[in-house]
Write a structure and sequence with these properties.
This protein is mostly helical. The chain contains 16 helices and two strands. The chain has a two-stranded parallel ribbon.
């Protein structure tokens, strides 16, 4: 199954991604290979990707030079990187589900990720790197649930050092560490988190790592002062690439309100729900969803990590299966439609991004996402009121033996 999924992706590598992105990645790969990670940012001129990526650019860029690849051949190496991480994500999902529900449901959950059309499109066709930070997010949450907060903090730090949008799950992680492990383990986890940040950054910036960290993250974020940067979300209803002004504050206030509400649900239902583990995973999905839906300046691909959490939950909880189907459809439509217009604009010689404000597909998909987000909030509300929404309802496969102890609250 894994082999078939990987071969399928490789066969799709030749399809056109976003040429500007691929050209930029090729330049970054070659620059990292030539200068090494320590001099990369001083040499490259411009790069808005955080530091952990540079080590990947260096490693795979060196492979490009060893193989003496050039032109379109480099695209295969560029697209290979996120697809390797896609395989790893599916492996993590398999082992986690298999331990609780048995081999067949573990394999099925992995298949729901491996053959998810949106996941395949994002990495194998577009060539984007979202699978990398998603892997570390998923591993971090699992380690936290397994009572290993220090290792979880290390993995979470790597995730943020790969993509800044990993910060979406920070409130959830802080809450779980406090709730499960207390102040002492929280402080040790925070120390590991900070140490990991500096361990990755210091080889690139000895003089002022704090300023370097700030410029990489907030400098790039400040370059997109628009309500929606091609994301079919709440703000997509009123248009794309609209200057956000004070709406920037409104978006983060909405996300803060959502965070407080969701964490309160977890606090009230901790060990009272039949399956706290499932509630935590659903909360992780909703944090990813809320980060995509509520703040301004959000890009079309920021919904990507949600699919990994939904694929993992699919065999466990019936209530999550509708989300898997709908979010897969809306996310695929979003990224495929935007890539279509990006490439069309490039072909026609335009130098600006397409503004699809008011486009029927943008509006309809945005409405569907809003409805699903409100439905998710409704489920959390019912959970808060004492109804066990996220109960164990495993899929039934002939011959599959559910593992002993799965109904217990493992958190």
């Amino acid at each position: 199954m894994f082999s078939a999924a990987f071969v399928l992706r490789v066969l799709l590598f030749s399809l056109q991604g976003h040429q500007n992105d691929l050209d930029t990645f090729a330049y970054w790969f070659n620059t990292a290979a030539a200068s090494g990670p320590s001099s990369f940012y001083n040499t490259v001129g411009w790069c808005d990707y955080p530091p952990f990526n540079i080590y990947l650019f260096w490693g795979f860029g060196s492979l490009v030079q060893v193989l003496n690849l050039f032109g379109s051949s480099i695209v295969y190496i560029i697209k290979l990187v996120p697809n390797i991480f896609d395989m790893l994500i599916a492996g993590v999902i398999y082992f986690f589900v298999q331990k609780s529900l048995g081999f067949k449901l573990g394999a099925l959950a992995a298949a729901f990720y491996l053959f998810n059309p949106a996941v395949i499109f994002n990495a194998a066709i577009w060539g984007q790197f979202d699978a990398i930070y998603t892997l570390f997010l998923l591993v971090s949450l699992i380690l936290m649930l397994k009572g290993k907060p220090e290792l979880s903090a290390l993995s979470f730090a790597v995730s943020i050092l790969t993509k800044p949008q990993a910060i979406a799950l920070l409130p959830l992680f802080v809450f779980i560490v406090f709730k499960k492990n207390g102040v002492r383990r929280f402080l040790s986890s925070a120390a590991i988190f900070i140490a990991t940040i500096f361990a990755v950054i210091l080889p690139m910036q000895w003089n002022n790592p704090v300023t370097f960290f700030y410029d990489i993250y907030f400098g790039a974020y400040g370059g997109y002062e628009y309500t929606s940067v091609n994301a079919f979300n709440l703000w997509g209803l009123s248009g794309l690439w609209v200057p956000d002004g004070n709406l920037f504050i409104v978006g983060w206030v909405l996300f803060a309100i959502f965070s407080v509400f969701t964490l309160y649900v977890l606090y009230k239902r901790w060990n009272k729900s039949n399956q706290t583990m499932l509630l935590i995973f659903f909360a992780a999905f909703m944090f990813c969803f809320a980060f995509f839906m509520l703040p301004t300046r959000i890009h079309e691909r920021y919904l990507f990590p949600a699919i990994s959490f939904l694929a993992l939950m699919f065999p466990f909880a019936k209530k999550t299966r509708l989300f898997y189907a709908v979010i897969t459809a809306t996310f695929l439509t979003n990224i495929a439609y935007i890539l279509h217009w990006f490439n069309l604009y490039l072909t026609e010689g335009y130098h600006n991004a397409p503004n699809l404000s008011g486009d029927p597909i943008v509006v309809v998909v945005s409405i569907i996402n809003v409805i699903m987000f409100l439905y998710g909030l409704t489920l959390l509300w019912h959970e808060l009121k004492g109804t066990t929404v996220f109960k164990l309802e495993p899929l039934t496969i002939t011959g599959n033996k559910q593992k002993k102890g799965v109904a217990s609250n493992e958190t």
